Amino acid sequence: MSGRSRSRKRSGCSPEDRERGSSMRLAALHAGASLRELMRMPAYVVPTLGFPTMFFLFFAAPGSDDDATTLMVVFAGFAVLGVAFFQFGVGIATERATPWERYVRTLAVSPTQRFGGRILSALVFAAAAAALVLVAAVLTTQADLRAPQWGQLVLALLLGSIPFALFGIALGYLAPPRAALPIANVVYLTLSYCGGLWTTPDELPDAVQQLSPYLPTRALADTLVGIARGDPLQSEAWLVLALYTGALFALAAWAYRRDEGERYR
Prior knowledge:
Elements: H1 3-11, H2 15-39, H3 42-60, H4 68-95, H5 99-105, H6 111-140, H7 147-174, H8 177-195, H9 206-211, H10 216-229, H11 235-264
Helix pairs in contact: 2-6, 3-4, 3-6, 4-6, 4-7, 4-8, 4-10, 6-7, 7-10, 7-11, 8-10, 10-11
């Protein structure tokens, strides 16, 4: 047995395992750097975390009545969506022309590792934004869930945020820096309303109801409402979210390569 084979046998790790471990470490390091950078920006942290809760308290809580639990979970989804669009869409578009971004592009980091790091950092902010909505709802309305439902809600919010994070990444690499903020606002608010994240999906106007089932936000809303009402697993909604995740990952990767080709050829 050669020395290399004996070393591999002692370590118990194949080259593929070591490569996966290295990729995960790089994604975690990138996530940590993104978190530290964003935490130093109160102008980003305060509105991103606070706006969904204020929106809930002003427009949903006063007339919640019997729908308090349902409104609580869909507004938690609304909070997650905002993090995805503004942390990625606006943040990436702003960073694209900076010297730091040009430096990072020279490092041996794949798009998957960078996307993974960005998604991990977004999950932290998404969890914080959603948590504020949940706390406000429990304190000011009759909203409540059983213990298993709380766990299902947390999992649904974390997994459901992934396609929107990828959407934000694609927007960040496709939109001009000065246009990113208004575009992100329009897309964020339109998808939130048409998907049923401001009201229950059943209360949308008839014209919007025709479009709503084809949107990823409607799939997220259906998943969250199902959890709030104690319904069985919304398999069709999860399938829609999975399909959007695959399509938006491809779009984000293409947008990243397109931007790289235009700026660094």
